[in-house]
Predict the 3D structure of the following.
Amino acid sequence: MSTSGARFGVVLLPESLSEFAALCRVVEEAGFDLLGVADSQSVFRELYVALTLAALNTRQIRLGPLVTNPLTRHLVVTASAISSVDELSGGRAMLGIGSGDSAITTLGAPPATVAGLQDAVTTVGRLTSGARIDRGGRRWQVHRSARRVPIYLAAEGPRTLELAGRIADGVIVGLGLTPEVIRLSLAAIERGARAAGRTLADIDVWWFAKTNVADTRAEAVRPIRMALAASANHAFRFTLDGKGVPPELHERITGLQRDYDAHHHELAAGDNAELTDRWGLTEFLLDRFAIAGTPEDCVGQIRRAMAAGAHQFVITGFVPEPTAFVRRFAREVAGPVRSTS
Amino acid sequence: MTTPIRVHLRIPGTSPMADLMALIRSVEAAGFDGVGILDSQMLCRDTFVTLGQAAIHTSRLQLFPAVTNPVTRHPSVLASAIQTVEELAPGRVRFVIGTGYTSASTIGRRPATLAEMRACIATVKTLLEGKRVDWGGASGGLAYASGRPIPVLMAASGAKAIELAGEIADGALLLVGFNRGIVQRALEHLDRGARRAGRRLEDLEVIWAVRTGTAATTEDARRMARPTAVHWGILRWGGQWLEPAGLTLPPLAIPDAVRQVYPDLSHAHDWEAAIRATSFVPDDVVAQLCDALGLVGTAEHCAARIADMAALGVENLYLMPFQTFVGPEPEVRAFRDVVFPRLSAAGLR
């Protein structure tokens, strides 16, 4: 893992396939290191068909689900599908997996437990390596690619961050980007890594950021308020304890969670955009979860995070014009950050 | 004017992706009407990854999973996946679902019950129509359902399953056999199901799944067909299709070794070993089973059989080469070079 220079990945929502392939090419040309595709079958195009398009339209960038879940597909199907994408992309796949957000809640189902996540990370990882696993009276095995596909755990709390440090190849940290949150997250990952005889440097850590860049801060923030609401809904849904949230905000966050509509998950035109203002949380959520504002604002926010120990950022392309956004972010934010980091 | 015969071919995702796409393009060039992509997550590459690529690499072929199941993916994921493939190949996609065979058995799950099939098919159809489904605790739809129809077909082999397909699906992929008596009996069941829903047989799309093996001689083709012929004719069919097929088999003691083949006789990885395991069945019995089951013999024989069956209204075929996990290149050549030209000459294509 690089500990100095900044690297950037981007998550795309396959809201339509007509421009998706071209967008994937733009992401690669813009110099991103990781291309993630969201998995929420009721809201977006299907994950593995979208990843097929992404693989066919890129040459070098790493790609995978950001993030899938262990519940809507059998683990062997997930292992088989990501191995297929790995083969198709010439060994560029990664698998981001978490407890399940809108893919699960739109079905009225509970998310995966920590034990379920642990099983998923180890089982899918082993299956992609070609291992046979005795389960359910049968021997599970998949058509493997040429290699084991690395598994990244999406984590928003101390227990899952520790689990990631213990068993995953990498982690997508969704707990926030403030220096305090970065330090507590890294400490949790490191505890897990040490418990498994590893070090923090063995874990590929990426920081998830709700992102937009515009000529003014207000213009940048307006289109991503639904994404900030999604972070408040997701990162704190099991508990607010141990997550560095001021106690006076707890009631407002649970209020926002009550009002959140998973069917409008990450959709700019949906009802969730109003929630951050309604509950007086916009500024808190921006500071905590976002890289958003003018290019200079964004560079400043990234430098603050880097000073606290974060170096790899997965930004969201959840904006009305993702192609223009990806190009502008690469040119006016990532470029200046890299040249000075 | 007779309706033209349409022929689809099964594609196993067992070879590298680049080879798979070359094969699918060659199937399109050979004149086939469509391909069904196996869905068996332990044995094949992912069905929907393969279908997505096939959508991009072809321009005319009909595409469908053959067959998917309600066991390994949530119905909302199934609807999402087929809708997404359809977006890449508008008007060229079908959804074919069965109870789950190797996809369920290899992970220690039982195939879906008919009640589960009924529920899953209803759910997928509702989602593809752009309507909401009550999940119990939440309700929702597929936000991007195109509104273009995606036919939902149920794969069925038994009487009750065929009737259910007739009752609830847009059509049926019938894996029953390929002779006059079997076809007539299967259509009776399908009609019974259709009537239960106030529909007619003519309202349904029927695809006949036909086990196929071509070779230079009839003897070679029948020898290669042994594992599948014995598996379906003796181990699985029971009395259900033998009687309509007009077959009376001598009593046969089934050796234990036959049941040890992984994952089963008709899906054996070691085909020669599977052929040896069927030595308890005499050649004349295998010959009868082959003729009742499907298209087994020389390419010329297959063309003549298809023309015979066309007279019964069997006009939509899905070829299943005997070795499930071996590429169908011999069948591609046989149909391109012999069967399709003969059917064309007979006014059937």
